[in-house]
Amino acid sequence: MAGVSVRYGSPKQPVTALEGVDLRIRAGEFAVLVGPSGCGKTSLLRVVAGFERPASGRARVRGALPRPGAGAGVVFQQPRLFPWRTVGGNLAFALARAGVPRADRPARIAGLLERVGLAETAGRRTWELSGGQQQRVALARALAAEPELLLMDEPFAALDALTRERLQEEVRALAGRLGTTVLFVTHSAEEAVLLGSRVLVMAAGPGRVVAELPVGLAREPDTDVSALRASPEFARLRGRLAGIMRG
């Protein structure tokens, strides 16, 4: 995107969520947006997803105008599953929207659930699952169309610490295996450093990118993430990012 601005409210009293944002995400990159509440992280994500049109500037995804569902999977802070459908039914809906033939859907559903560690749950109701399991289903649904781009808006914020750590590790490994481009929003310096190959720091008033931090930590799918969390380099990067965020 180049020079992107987003405004809300009436023409007489507009509220500027983003102002003049320039941003380029490379294919296969795990980019993380951090910053205080109200700095426009979600607005930026919505522009990339095609849910918002910028008031000015230009946004492109692989050279085309962003459109909802056009090659991007989205995972929100809340799972937003269909409670009247089973786990498999939620995934079947996403596969149907992606044009997958009906005969191919059962195998694809089994593969998606295996990928997120929820094998044998296709017949269960979503309300029978824990919060962490529901968020895994939401991730599987976002991956159903095999998107080249995955957009994640604070997907683990409402989870307990242990579940959050487990899903962080799973998403990190999954992105590495699939080579998916990821744009991830968080408030947490620790989460940003653990997940991101590059961290973009935003400031409010109005929202803009003010700094970036490359993260050179090991990203192979079989990386020992527990050892990574305990490493001096992880602590150094987390401290450096926290300092940037404090300004």
UniProtKB/TrEMBL annotation:
The keyword Amino-acid biosynthesis does not apply. Pfam families: ABC_tran. Keywords: ATP-binding, Nucleotide-binding, Transport. CDD domains: ABC_NrtD_SsuB_transporters. The keyword Ribosomal protein does not apply. It comes from the Bacteria. Residues 1-229 form the ABC transporter domain. One of its GO terms (molecular function) is ATP binding. InterPro entries: AAA+_ATPase, ABC_transporter-like_ATP-bd, ABC_transporter-like_CS, ABC_transporter_ATP-bind, P-loop_NTPase. This is ABC transporter ATP-binding protein. It comes from Streptomyces omiyaensis. The lineage of its organism: Bacteria, Bacillati, Actinomycetota, Actinomycetes, Kitasatosporales.
